[in-house]
Amino acid sequence: MSAGGPRAAGNVRALAASAWEFRWKVEREAEVRFESLAARLEALDAPAHLVELARRSAADERRHAAHCARLAAGLGRPVPARTPPPPPEPVAPTALAEEDAVTYELVAACCVTESVSVAVLTTLLPAAGDASLRAVLHELAEDEVSHARLGWAQLAVAAARGRIAFLGPYLPAMLRGSIDDDLFQPVEPDREDEALLALGVLPHATQRELFVRVLEDVVFPGLEGSGVDTAAGREWLAARRAAAGERPAPAPQSSRGFP
Amino acid sequence: MSMPNVRKLLRVLVAGGVALAGVEAARAQDKGAAATENAEKGKEKDQDAKAKADKERQDQEKKAREKKAEEAKKAAESEGGGVKGW
């Protein structure tokens, strides 16, 4: 349990409750986003199995939201019942053609965010405080792998059609929008408490370290493998790390990216 | 606390996605229109003048491209967003 006694434990519990409430909102937005993307992919005559995967992802996210709501409520943060999911904010630049806007959104939502989510969930799994939480994390991790693959699949299709060059300059905005504003800033000590792990939440510094590793070892190499110029994204990450007082990342050994 | 094997994650997510796309057999050959050059034979005394004019034109085009790229970069940085996750 958290060092510092009952008050610290209460703070940790409140932080965990807030995190699960946030995740509930994220999952509900993701449900609507995937439903919309399924319809847009279908309208673009995308491969049927990708359309189906987008629809299945929407159903997964609805189930995930229910888990997150239950966990938040169990920690003392009940979520509003029976409210319709809010429409997600559009993330693709308005100047893009529809085909490219769909690619942008899938890269942002899946290649970046879902890939990071998979890493977060697999890191949390061994530290889960009870079997019930572990089962939820395992279920979510399995589903998020499929969701991430949807993005990488769409990127491969777009690359085969020669429509990925536009992505490079947008990477900083895409990455910036995927994180909290304070990820590369110091936070209050309670947010670094290792006791958060048992409640399914990463300490802040661990969250940051994981984000950096996933970008450097999964997202950037994966994008480069499809021919996306990641220079702007790497530059953005280096600047964030420098501002946080971290050492610069070593230069990538291969532009191909795949091990 | 152990970190996940991110290289394994790379294979699972990225390679899995590429396989899902099934692009290996259907990889497009279209790389976009290649630049074409007009070559014309001129008289030797005109070649130096032409080369100079060409270089000036290329310098101007390069500056225009760089300016356009910089404007696009600025525009891109002020547009588009990301998706929050876990």
Question: What profile does the largest beta sheet of chain B have?
Answer: none
Decide which structural class fits the backbone of chain A.
mainly alpha
What is the quaternary state of this protein? heterodimer
How much helical structure, as a percent, in the residues of chain B?
A: 55-70%
Instruction: Report, as a whole number of angstroms, the end-to-end distance of chain A.
Output: 39 Å
Number of strands of chain A: 0
Cα-atom Rg of chain B, whole angstroms? 24 Å
- Terminal CA distance of chain B reads 18 Å
Mean pLDDT figure of chain A? 91
Q: How would a textbook summarize the main sheet of chain A?
A: none
Largest interface: A-B, 76 and 40 residues
Strand content of chain A: under 5%
Inertia-based shape of chain B = elongated
Strand content of chain B: under 5%
Label the overall shape of chain A: globular
Q: Helix fraction of chain A?
A: 55-70%
Total DSSP helices of chain A: 7
Poorly predicted regions of chain A are 254-259
Low-confidence stretches of chain B: 28-39
Order of helices and strands of chain A: HHHHHHH
Q: How would you summarize this macromolecular structure in one to three sentences?
A:
The complex is a heterodimer of chains A (259) and B (86). Chain A is mostly helical and 259 residues long.
Structural overview:
The complex is a heterodimer of chains A (259) and B (86). Chain A has helices at 5-43, 48-74, 98-124, 131-160, 171-176, 204-225, 231-243. Chain A has 259 residues and is mostly helical. In chain A, helix 1 packs antiparallel against helix 3, helix 3 (98-124) runs antiparallel to helix 4 and helix 3 crosses helix 6 (204-225). The longest helix of chain A has 39 residues, at 5-43. The termini of chain A are far apart. With 86 residues, chain B is mainly alpha-helical. Chain B contains two helices and no strands. Chain B has helices spanning 6-21, 44-78. Chain B is elongated, with a radius of gyration of 24 Å. In chain B, 19% of the residues are buried. The model of chain B is unreliable at 28-39 (pLDDT under 50). At the A-B interface, helix 1, helix 2, helix 3, helix 4 and helix 5 of A face helix 1 and helix 2 of B.
